[in-house]
Amino acid sequence: SSGTVPRRRPPPSDMGRGLTLLLLPLALLAAPAQAEGGRAAEEEVKIEVLHLPEACSPKSKKGDLLNAHYDGFLASDGSKFYCSRTQNEGHPKWFVLGVGQVIKGLDIAMMNMCPGEKRKVIIPPSLAYGQQGYAQGKIPPNATLIFEIELYAVNKGPRSVEAFNQIDKDSDKKLSELEISQYLKEEFARDGKKRHPSVHDEILADIFKKNDHDGDGFISAKEYNVYQHDEL
């Protein structure tokens, strides 16, 4: 077990909310920590549109909340390493586009996509798991990946500045463990579901593990920010 907390598909009323949705990447497809640079210019995501519905609106953009199914294959031998339909009781995945909740190649591959559209995309190693690979996900080093994607819904995603300011009670432009802990308690109380206290602690620890990149015990505006052009 990787220690991540299983997530249920949120009801519609929760779509525009949710620090947990913003800050908890999908376990398998979360962007790995790796050095920037060194990517050859010719390495890019190749996109083949398999199905395009007549009504194509709205098109996905950075920051949107997407609902999709996807299968992942190794280009080297065609073997399947991931199938979202076998996860979370078969529910499609919810994630925010363009913010690193999935690997860089998927963030690129799913831009300007409309509900009902299907795509086959080829992602080079530099936009996936690079030289390190991802042993837990059965992805070897320097692996080119192929994904078949079906997009179901495009929703307006949570805005980072609004959510950040809501959590940042003392307005010091950084989120403390206490502030995020309090926010989680409020969110849990709002949906009324009974949870073991350990769930709160696990989510809190996971948020800091994945987002406190400099390890100073706070999540800064830069570490949190969904939109690069937003100013906090």
TrEMBL record:
Q: Which GO terms describe its cellular component?
A: endoplasmic reticulum
The EF-hand domain extends over 155-190, 199-232
Q: Look up the EC number in the record and give it.
A: 5.2.1.8
Source organism's superkingdom? Eukaryota
Q: Which residues form the signal peptide?
A: 1-35
Keywords, sorted A to Z: Calcium, Endoplasmic reticulum, Glycoprotein, Isomerase, Metal-binding, Repeat, Rotamase, Signal
Q: Which reaction does it catalyse?
A: [protein]-peptidylproline (omega=180) = [protein]-peptidylproline (omega=0)
For this entry, the protein name equals peptidylprolyl isomerase
Originating organism: Rissa tridactyla (Black-legged kittiwake)
Q: What is the lineage of its organism?
A: Eukaryota, Metazoa, Chordata, Craniata, Vertebrata
- GN (gene name): Fkbp7
